[in-house]
């Protein structure tokens, strides 16, 4: 390496570190270390895949929503998740990767998506519980990402979080309606909360001492808080909401700790999280198969869009014949 290129590299590295140190944003054309770029592609792609696969568990209930109002709300929510996926793939593309390639990596199981979407939705109460707990957890995780150091990711998160907030409220409202209904409806809500509580806690990832990426991601300002910090924030937020709803969270160790100023809670089953991440959850095969089918079915749409774009770029001027 020549002296000049070595000096240029040092200057770029210093500029990157200063930008991160001053809490400013790295933008697509800025120099960035390879590891920073790789980490962002990994996280943003997984996040995008989660939004797209996340349409499936609730989407299966669209045809059997209990009223037109519930159906309209659910259609809007599922469409929002598609939009989130698209913003996130676009953010990933600013790092030099290609959406088609990322989708193929998801289908080939070379890239991950959130563990939470590998659990089945067994009743309409699950639509409410996913809104309340899963979107609630997503908000806890994603609001700090609005301050992520990579500009396109942070900006995408602002709109995503606004929409997630509507998702969380519609879920809570659905559960509240059921809780003021019949004994059978209340039992449906409790049964649903019992199934989704622990998987929701696992969405935040492994505990900090088993999280290989957290320290570096936090030093780079990609992540702002550790997995355990965000999990605690979610528990503290959810317990009073569960009281308002009148449901019991399925954890006998949940108790307010005056000294810490937080709720104590039990240990999630980390083996279960590892199994689900490895692809051995209840619905992994079904989710990936359905995504693969949708990708194959959409081939003609992509071909038509590409042909149209090509035509627009090189319009053929037809001569008038007399
Ligand atoms: N599931 O070292 P860490 C939503 C992997 S969107 C699967 O702690 P990191 C909206 C991790 O990738 C939900 N894999 O990793 C919605 C890593 O593997 P790798 C998605 C997981 O990245 C609602 C390894 O384990 N949200 O819900 C999980 O620092 C309703 C070691 O872990 C995001 O993606 C998991 N739960 O922290 C849609 C938010 N946890 O790549 C529809 C952005 C960990 O080294 C309906 N992402 N892994 O092979 C993040 O904040 C982070 O990536 C974490 C993981 C916190 C998920």
From TrEMBL:
Task: Write out the GO biological process terms.
Answer: phenylacetate catabolic process
Alphabetically sorted, this entry's keywords are:
Oxidoreductase
Question: Top-down, what is the taxonomic lineage of the species of origin?
Answer: Bacteria, Bacillati, Actinomycetota, Actinomycetes, Propionibacteriales
Do you know which Pfam families this protein is assigned to? PaaA_PaaC
Q: Which GO terms describe its molecular function?
A: phenylacetyl-CoA 1,2-epoxidase activity
User: Which cellular component, as a GO term, is one annotated location?
Assistant: cytosol
Q: What is its EC number?
A: 1.14.13.149
Q: What is this protein called?
A: 1,2-phenylacetyl-CoA epoxidase, subunit A
Keyword Oxidoreductase set for record: yes
């Amino acid at each position: 390496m020549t002296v000049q290129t070595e000096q240029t590299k040092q200057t770029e590295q210093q500029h990157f570190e200063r930008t991160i140190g001053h809490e400013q944003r790295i933008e697509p054309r800025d120099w960035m270390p390879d590891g920073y770029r790789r980490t962002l592609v990994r996280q943003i792609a997984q996040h995008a895949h989660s939004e797209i696969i996340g349409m499936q568990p609730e989407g299966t209930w669209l045809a059997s929503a209990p009223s037109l109002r519930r159906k309209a709300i659910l259609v809007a929510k599922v469409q929002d998740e598609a939009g989130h996926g698209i913003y996130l793939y676009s953010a990933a593309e600013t790092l030099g990767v290609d959406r088609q390639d990322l989708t193929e990596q998801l289908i080939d199981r070379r890239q991950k998506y959130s563990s939470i979407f590998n659990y089945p939705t067994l009743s309409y109460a699950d639509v409410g519980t996913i809104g309340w707990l899963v979107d609630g957890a997503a908000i806890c995780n994603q609001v700090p990402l609005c301050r992520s150091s990579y500009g396109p990711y942070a900006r995408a998160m602002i709109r995503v979080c606004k929409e997630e907030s509507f998702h969380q409220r519609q879920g809570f409202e659905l559960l509240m309606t059921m809780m003021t209904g019949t004994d059978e409806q209340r039992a449906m809500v409790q049964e649903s909360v019992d199934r989704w509580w622990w998987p929701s806690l696992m969405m935040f990832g492994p505990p900090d001492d088993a999280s290989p990426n957290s320290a570096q991601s936090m030093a780079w300002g990609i992540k702002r808080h550790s997995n355990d910090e965000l999990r605690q924030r979610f528990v503290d937020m959810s317990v009073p909401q569960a009281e308002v709803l009148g449901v019991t969270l399925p954890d006998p160790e949940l108790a307010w700790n005056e000294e810490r100023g937080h709720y104590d809670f039990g240990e999630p089953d980390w083996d279960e999280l590892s199994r689900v991440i490895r692809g051995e959850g209840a619905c992994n095969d079904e989710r990936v198969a359905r995504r693969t089918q949708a990708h194959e079915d959409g081939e003609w749409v992509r071909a038509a869009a590409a042909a149209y774009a090509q035509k627009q770029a090189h319009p053929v001027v037809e001569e008038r014949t007399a």
